[in-house]
Amino acid sequence: MAQTYSFDVEPVARFAGxxxxxxxxxxxxxxxxxxxxxxxxxxxxxxxxxxxxxxxDLNRGFETFRQLDDSADDHLDGLLDAxxxxxxxxxxxxxxxxxxxxxMMTKIMVAPYSSFDDWEMNATCFQGTIFIEENHxxxxxxxxxxxxxxxxxxxxxxDIMSFWGYKFETVSLLPEPWSETPREYIDSREDEIVSNYxxxxxxxxxxxxxxxxxxxGEVDAVMDFKPEDKSQPINWVELKTTAAVTNERAQVKFExxxxxxxxxxxxxxxxxxxxxxxxxxxxLERLEELDTQAIPETVRLRGKNLWDGQTCINFASSFLEWLxxxxxxxxxxxxxxxxxxxxxxxxxxxxxxxxxxxxxAFVEWRTQGLxxxxxxxxxxxxNANGNGTCRNLLEPPCL
Length: 399
Prior knowledge:
Elements: E1 4-8, E2 22-33, E3 39-40, E4 48-49, E5 56-57, H1 77-90, E6 98-101, H2 102-110, E7 119-126, E8 129-134, H3 136-148, H4 158-172, E9 173-174, H5 183-187, E10 199-208, E11 211-219, E12 221-222, E13 236-243, H6 248-268, E14 272-278, E15 283-291, H7 295-302, H8 309-326, E16 332-337, E17 343-350, H9 360-384
Parallel strand pairs: 6-8, 6-11, 13-14
Antiparallel strand pairs: 1-17, 2-3, 2-10, 4-9, 5-15, 7-8, 7-16, 10-11, 12-13, 14-15, 16-17
Helix pairs in contact: 1-9, 2-6, 2-8
């Protein structure tokens, strides 16, 4: 039986006194899924925020919803394809400790305050980098369990409540900047067919403590425009819907939601979150802009103090540094958090290979294509120096 390694989540207080350094996320590259959910290495699915008219019925259009069938396991394919193209353009390997989706890091970051979460991930080590993906079978099983649970009397179904989030995006986004969008389109967004096929995915460099990371994830929109200068921060915005906060119980629930809102945006460097407050029947009534960086302090000073952002950062940093010492070779590893468990468990499920975590194209590129591309300059240099006279390619050719 495979050895199980454990990393204690509790007591959470042991992470509070640390002060792990964070590397500010910077976009490295990006890609899009178009309206047919085909991968495109461009920004064609980038969207622009413009607030909707209120009140807005988020139920409208549910019958014509174009919902993506995500029952197939896409692994890290889109992320790896984009990184492969980036490496081809730069002619060198991206050196990093961990590559994963934003969703995986969100689950890890919030673990100290999410005892009811139950999830599994798969991981492998390849060329010194740990690649982490969601365990797709566990994800599908958890979703089926959630959606099969009968709704409370008078409550809306999980299907339609899930739709509300996509409807909120549809009525809040534009395909072009506001200055280039006809007024007729802006005013008719409530009539647009809702679809979750198209996505813009940002890939960032970041880091926790000593661990360097590359993280990919969908971003909803930019507030104004995306600067051409990559050194400039991008004014991203994340859109979230939630029930109107009408009593203390709802306040506690909202504060717990804010933990994941904050972590998701923090990881990709999204500075603003627009929260749409709705009634229990799905009528959008109010909008609020939140500054991502300010959320932890707001929770500490004005909320119920249910979680601490720095503790989440410290925990993630400690766990990742520990993980680097555990997953040091190939094979497929399982990272697991069980509901109400005080620890994360790591164990090997396949002794060799990388499972389907890494695409064949990516492995071939890293083992054959990249090495061949890196040898070309050396070959040119050797050829130039072949007669023993030219010492530098920058010198004039020998005549």
